[in-house]
Every structure is written in structure tokens, then in C-alpha cells.
Write a structure and sequence with these properties.
This protein is α/β, with parallel strands linked by helices and 184 residues long. It has six helices and five strands, in the order E-E-E-H-E-H-E-H-H-H-H. A five-stranded mixed beta sheet has the order 3-2-1-4-5. The longest helix has 32 residues.
């Protein structure tokens, strides 16, 4: 499975593609980068640039899934709204490409990658470097964050798939469902 991780931002949006097995045990880096936007450009033109750049990444690298970081709540409501609009563009691009979509809070990403939900950015970057067997920390930090989101997806999407498969088995095999009800 190939996962496109996205760290949305109105001036810099990080992205990274990681390939691995569906149970989150092994993965390798395919490519990463950032979409750097001019702060002097209109916000609507920045959204269009993000859309086009993500479409190009998806077309070129053919991911199966897209993992995107959820919005955090900023002290400044305008920042939160802009981040939401960038996320909306990324979600639309992923949906148009028919990718499986996962959304993860910054806390969950940190917990999954670094083992601590309040981990510092540098700790997450170092763990991304270790988990992907890289010689150096991916730069800039927006790209490292996007890779962390992709890694997070491997762990949580695999769990969801196993739970769904287990649920399907119990619906298919009435003896398992009956035995489970008796134990409960």
C-alpha cells in the first residue's frame, strides 16, 4: 500500500509518500516535498496551487490512500479557518482521485510515531528518520510532519481493516457470533 501524507498549511503544505505493508510493520520512503506558496499571492490562488500540486503528486506517484492532519485550534480564528480551507482542498483532491482517506489529530500522529502525544517537533522528525531508515531528518519540518501522518495511517488503517474483517467473519459464521454472545 502507498500512502500520501499531507501536512496542510496556507503558505507551506508538506507532503510525503510512504509505501509499506497494511499492518504497519514495514514501510519505506518513496518521495517527499513541500508546496511553497507566496504570501503575497491571493488566498484563492494559493488554494488552486495546492490543488494542482497535489493532483500532480497523486498522478505521478499513484498512492492508494491519503492521510491528512486534522486542524488544530489556533488562538487566531482566521488561521484556523484558512487551515480548514487548505484541508478542504486536499480532501477534495484525494476524493476525486478515489483514494482511501484517513484524518488524524496532531496528538494521535505524535503518539503513534514518537510514543508520546505531546512530543516536540524535533522528536517526531527524529522518529520519522529512524522509522524510514533515513540518513538525515527530512527537511523542511512540514515534509517530515507529512511523512509522520502517512506512517500514522499505516498503523491505524491496518487496525481498522482488521476490526472490519473480524466483524465480517462474525456475521458470516453464526457459530462464532453465538459463542461471542454467550461469553458476554
Amino acid at each position: 500500500m502507498r500512502v500520501l501524507g499531507i501536512d496542510p498549511g496556507s503558505e507551506t503544505t508538506g507532503w510525503g509518500v510512504v509505501e509499506g505493508d497494511s499492518n504497519g510493520q514495514r514501510y519505506r520512503l518513496i518521495e517527499f516535498g513541500v508546496i511553497k506558496l507566496s504570501s503575497s499571492a491571493t488566498f484563492s490562488s494559493r488554494l488552486l496551487s495546492i490543488s494542482r500540486a497535489l493532483e500532480e503528486v497523486i498522478e505521478r506517484l499513484s498512492p492508494d490512500a491519503c492521510a491528512i492532519e486534522e486542524a488544530f485550534y489556533s488562538v487566531n480564528p482566521k488561521v484556523t479557518l484558512k487551515l480548514g480551507q487548505v484541508r478542504g482542498v486536499a480532501l477534495l483532491v484525494a476524493e476525486r482521485a478515489a483514494l482511501q482517506i484517513g484524518e488524524y489529530s496532531p496528538r494521535r500522529v505524535k503518539q503513534t510515531v514518537a510514543g508520546y502525544g505531546n512530543a516536540e517537533k524535533q522528536q517526531v522528525q527524529q522518529m520519522v528518520r529512524v522509522l524510514l531508515s533515513l540518513g538525515t531528518v527530512p527537511q523542511p519540518h512540514d515534509a517530515a510532519d507529512a511523512l509522520a501522518v502517512a506512517i500514522c495511517h499505516f498503523h491505524h488503517a491496518g487496525i481498522s481493516e482488521r476490526l472490519i474483517a473480524a466483524d465480517v467473519r462474525t456475521k458470516v459464521d453464526p457459530t462464532i457470533a453465538a459463542a461471542t454472545r454467550r461469553r458476554a
